[in-house]
Design brief:
Blueprint: H1 7-30, H2 45-53, H3 55-63, H4 66-79, H5 84-98, H6 105-119, H7 122-127, H8 132-155, H9 159-174, H10 176-185, H11 196-225, H12 228-232, H13 242-253, H14 260-275, H15 283-300, H16 312-327, H17 331-344, H18 349-368, H19 372-385, H20 392-404, H21 406-420, H22 424-432, H23 439-470, H24 474-481, H25 485-497, H26 501-522
Helix pairs in contact: 1-2, 3-4, 5-6, 6-8, 6-9, 6-10, 8-9, 8-11, 9-10, 9-11, 11-13, 13-14, 14-15, 14-16, 15-16, 16-17, 17-18, 18-19, 19-20, 21-22, 21-23, 22-23, 23-25, 23-26, 24-26, 25-26
Length: about 525
């Protein structure tokens, strides 16, 4: 008669079933909603070993305590940072789930990074060297999946999903440290060594995939710019739908990785578009296009140097700053942007013209304010950039003379203001302190002094005569007569300064009238 299973057999079977249940719960914890469909002996040896070695993890799984199980699993991972078998098992599990339609960023990221790092681990590769080619193909498959999902995410308006795909690809071609950091973000410690040469080989694969993605985006953008239906809706002077192409490129260059080819093309499209817009009639549109170009220029500029002005990239950057100057409202901004444009390409004629125009504008404004040194500075800059400007030589010479009398000019302006306010004493004081050098300013100061003395003399004389008439006593009038000596002296001074016959005649008439008045008062 056949006997039943022994107590030890039953105990062993119970332990096996319990361990199987714990592993199933652990998988459910690691991959919620993703049941494991593959059943084969030894598949979970590393997980079974981890569960068996951790009483606290096993207890938490048996009790269905997810929080405690998660905490204990993190402890297992930390202790197994150099456990090749554990990381291989995780790489297999994460890859299987990354290939399903429900894959998310974590599954694909972890699978890709773990497989790359394991392929660069001498211990892992040495255990089964005959699998090296198959595993490399597996990694290439995961890399291509990143590109495919990233491209689909951009096409469906999900830039953040695409950014995650690009983030992982960048980590994979940046080296071991970047990949270990990415795993750490998913709470998977990794402590194995990695062969630099092997990582460089894989980085080459990643770079080729990323470049292919970039090429695909550029080709799609170029097709949009040449779409006949789109072009038919554009103004007659625009032969490409720049906006459609730029709109296709923009999300790609915003993924956080610098793509010189896409950046250069996008910036050149912006520049060509701007060149079709008139500064006056299309100013608002010009500002919008220039604002859109900034994202491309800001990313491209750090990738270039100013020592190659003939390169396509440098010329594109230079043109961008020239268009930025065209769209600026402030003179200072226009000048600053043109100066930057010429740093990138000294032969940029548009930037030169805009800069010269604004230098002349500043020179004239400074001249109007009497800041002749400042006017001279800007005029010379304009002259240096474009010596054949009509009238600039004469303007420079005039400013050179006027700059010598800049203080005199400011004094003249002050004296004129005082004269308008009938502040004759203050005006005379200001004018007497001036020492003009230019002949025309000598004459202007003399003329203003004449007006000041004439104005003061006539005003004072009228006050004295009016006062004498108010107190119509002979004694008062005789006493008042001598007060007219000072006004008469002012008019005599003014007459001596007069260079025009009409001024001298006018002053002479006023002098005669005041002298006659003084004579009458004395004889009262």
């Amino acid at each position: 008669m056949r006997s039943g299973p022994s107590h030890s057999d039953l105990t062993e079977l119970a332990d096996a079933l319990e361990l199987e249940m714990c592993v199933e719960r652990l998988l459910a914890l690691l991959f919620p909603g993703e049941p494991d469909r593959l059943e084969r002996p030894g598949r979970y040896a590393a997980l079974e070993k981890a569960v068996s070695a951790g009483d606290d993890l096993r207890t938490a799984l048996l009790n269905g305590d997810d929080a405690a199980a998660t905490r204990e699993w993190q402890r297992v991972l930390a202790q197994g940072a150099k456990d090749v078998q554990l990381h291989h098992t995780l790489a297999v599990l994460y890859r299987e789930r990354a290939l399903t339609q429900r894959a998310d960023a974590e599954y694909l990221d972890v699978a890709t990074v773990l497989w790359i790092l394991l392929l660069a681990d001498p211990q892992f590769r040495g255990a089964a060297p005959e699998m090296d080619g198959t595993r490399t193909a597996l990694v290439r498959e995961l890399i291509d999946l990143h590109v495919t999902q990233g491209s689909q995410a951009l096409a469906s308006g999900r830039p953040e999903a695409a950014r995650l795909r690009m983030r992982c690809l960048e980590a994979c071609r940046s080296g071991r440290e970047a990949m270990v950091d990415l795993l750490a973000g998913y709470k998977i410690p990794y402590g194995h060594p990695a062969e630099k040469g092997r990582l460089e080989e894989i980085a080459t694969l990643v770079t080729a995939a990323v470049d292919g993605w970039c090429t695909e985006v550029i080709e799609a953008a170029e097709r949009l710019t040449r779409d006949p239906e789109r072009i038919a809706k554009l103004p007659k002077n625009v032969a490409m739908d720049y906006g459609a192409g730029i709109e296709r490129l923009a999300p790609f260059i915003a993924l956080g990785v610098q793509f010189p080819k896409a950046l250069s093309l996008g910036l050149r499209w912006h520049n060509d578009w701007c060149s079709k817009l008139e500064t006056g009639t299309d100013r608002d549109q010009l500002k919008k296009v220039v604002a859109s170009a900034r994202a491309f220029a800001d990313e491209l500029t750090p990738l270039c140097t100013k020592d190659d002005p003939k390169s396509i990239e440098n010329q594109a950057i230079s043109k961008y700053f020239a268009h930025l100057a065209r769209s600026s409202d402030e003179t200072g901004d226009r000048i600053r942007n043109c100066e930057i444009a010429l740093e990138w390409n000294p032969g940029n004629s548009s930037a030169t013209i805009i800069l010269v125009e604004n230098y002349i504008e500043l020179a004239q404004a400074s001249d109007d304010k009497g800041n002749f040194s400042e006017a001279l500075k800007y005029a010379r800059k304009a002259q240096e950039l474009k010596p054949d400007i009509v009238g600039v030589d004469d303007f420079v010479r005039a400013m050179e003379r006027m700059a010598l009398d800049e203080g005199t000019t400011r004094g003249i302006r002050k004296a004129v203001e005082l004269l308008k306010a009938d502040s004759f004493d203050d005006s005379i004081a200001v004018l007497q302190g001036l020492v003009p050098k230019a002949p025309e300013l000598v004459e202007e100061v003399r003329f203003l002094q004449m007006q000041a003395f004439l104005g003061r003399g006539i005003t004072k004389a009228n006050e004295i005569i009016a006062s004498a008439n108010n107190y119509a006593t002979a004694a008062f009038m005789r006493a008042t007569a001598s007060e007219l000596d000072a006004p008469i002296h002012d008019l005599e001074t003014a007459q001596a300064m007069a260079t025009e016959a009409k001024d001298r005649n006018h002053i002479s008439e006023q002098l005669t009238a005041i002298r006659d008045a003084r004579h009458r008062l004395r004889n009262m």
